[in-house]
Amino acid sequence: MNWFTDVAEVSFGGIDKVFDVSAVLCEFYIGSHHVTINWYGAIIAFGFTLAALFGGRIAYTWRINLSKMVDVLLYGTVGGVIGARLYFVAFKWSYYSAHPEQIFAIWNGGLAIYGGIIGGLIAAYITCKIEKINFKNLLDMVGMSLLIGQGIGRWGNYANQEAFGVFTDGNYGMMSSKVVSYILRHPDKFELEGVSDIPGYIESNNLFVHPTFFYEFAWCMVGFVLLYIILKKYRKFSGQLFLCYGIWYGTGRAIFEGLRTDSLYIGDTTLRVSQVLSIAVVAVCLVLLIINLIKVKKHPQPIEGVDFFPPDAAKTIKEAKEEKAKKKAKKTEVKREERDEENG
Questions:
Q1: DSSP state string for 165-232
Q2: pTM: predicted TM-score of the whole model, two decimal places
Q3: For residues 150 and 219, what is the distance between their CA atoms, to the nearest angstrom?
Q4: What's the distance, CA 17 to chain centroid?
Q5: In the predicted structure, residue 315 carries a pLDDT above the cut 60
């Protein structure tokens, strides 16, 4: 068994140390079959596990039925993988229409985050309907968990030396042999079409690329902290945290996507799919957040766990008031009878 192979030397502006970053965690043979476990997959799995553990903790706090949550997690995961692949294939159809045998080859890469979110939410919504779970409250849990999984998962891009941005001369930039190889294959994306010695040009000009993977990681972690604070102190209605997630993540993704060179585009246009979708998500979530905050200020409703439905809340509140009124009336009646006995 070989460990930590496919190594790239990675350097950062302003840091003298060069880091050896391996893309492969380990590789071995089972019989004659060669098996490779990439860091990308291991990191994604780690991020998914942390997200699931956090979601489980919230589920326990909200007293959610464990079997129901396991169903949501399983079906949501399957839906997420399917959605992530379909999204990627749809916007790379010019390639996959000519190579249909590659459509299901997800081990070669090609999973889009937004597609995964869409597919996972569709599967989760159907499961919630069947299991009678409040979907809006579930979304609040999902929003925080997604930030954990997405943030951690971006380090898989670092292991692969991918999902980076255009040139920057800042002290925070990144460069490696894999980045240079990518630039050699796509000089047009870095405005280097006429340069004969690209590696020499990069070195002599001390050029680096934006480590957009790290930007998104940091953005997601800050977003998680903010959403957790909102959960503890400022949550007013079901779905509020997910709307905040859409605004926060969408804003960051729209910015970072504009720096990247590997974006999916809408047809033959220069419009980046994720950037356009991010802006739309931010706009929709912001409008819905404002509308719901105004509504809840005028007509406040209690919120509970994922198994809690607002209509049940109204009914429960009405019953509680009626019961309180009956007890008060009974207490008044008892006092009146006592006074009558004393006067009698």
A1: BSEE-STT-EEEHHHHHHHHH-GGGGT-TT-S-HHHHHHHTT-EE--HHHHHHHHHHHHHHHHHHIII
A2: 0.82
A3: 10
A4: 32
A5: no
